[in-house]
Structures are given as structure tokens and as C-alpha cells.
């Protein structure tokens, strides 16, 4: 008896398209420190560093299996740089 294969919902990240902000072309091919510096700019991430972290994570998700292990490691490193920067900022008290 053969098992019927149920199609899995995958590659949701590939369908996401936004017109809000775009990092400059080639940003995600650069070293981690430069990716973090570019993504932290107000022009690229007007929502702040948290927004930059989410954009890097989205790029990692969209890359999926096609993202090389070395590139994924470099982008994870950029994400950690941004996270440290986010936690180092003094938070405004309302």
C-alpha cells in the first residue's frame, strides 16, 4: 500500500513582496558588520533596529535551502550585531 503524499504548505516567505523599504542591492552579500550598519540606517529601517533585525531574518527565511551555510552564518552574525545594538540603546521611559 503506497502512502499518498499530502502537499505541504511551504515557501510562504517567497510570496512576500513589500513596497515599504528596500535595502540597497547587494546588501546581503556583504560582511556581517557592513550588513548591520546598512540595515540600521533610518532610510532602510525607519521602524528602528527591531525592524532591521526582522528584515535580515526575512531574508534568511526567503533564502531557505538555497542560502549557503557560510552566507547564513554571516547573516546570523549581522542579526546578533543588530540585537546587541538594540539592547545597548537607552530606552525612553514614557
Explain what the structure shows.
- This protein is mainly alpha-helical and 94 residues long.
- The protein has a domain at 25-87.
- The protein contains 3 helices and no strands.
- It is elongated, with a radius of gyration of 16 Å.
- It starts with 31 loop residues before the first helix and ends in a 6-residue tail after the last helix.
- The model has no long low-confidence stretch (mean pLDDT 83).
In short:
The protein is mostly helical and 94 residues long. The protein is 46% helix and 0% strand.
Features:
94 residues, elongated, mainly alpha, single chain
Sequence of secondary-structure elements:
HHH
Shape: elongated
Radius of gyration: 16 Å
Termini distance?
64 Å
Low-confidence stretches: none
Q: Could you report the average pLDDT, rounded to the nearest whole number?
A: 83
- By secondary-structure content and strand pairing, the structural class works out as mainly alpha
Strand content: under 5%
Number of extended strands? 0
Biggest beta-sheet profile = none
Give the arrangement of secondary structure elements.
Layout: H1 32-39, H2 49-63, H3 69-88
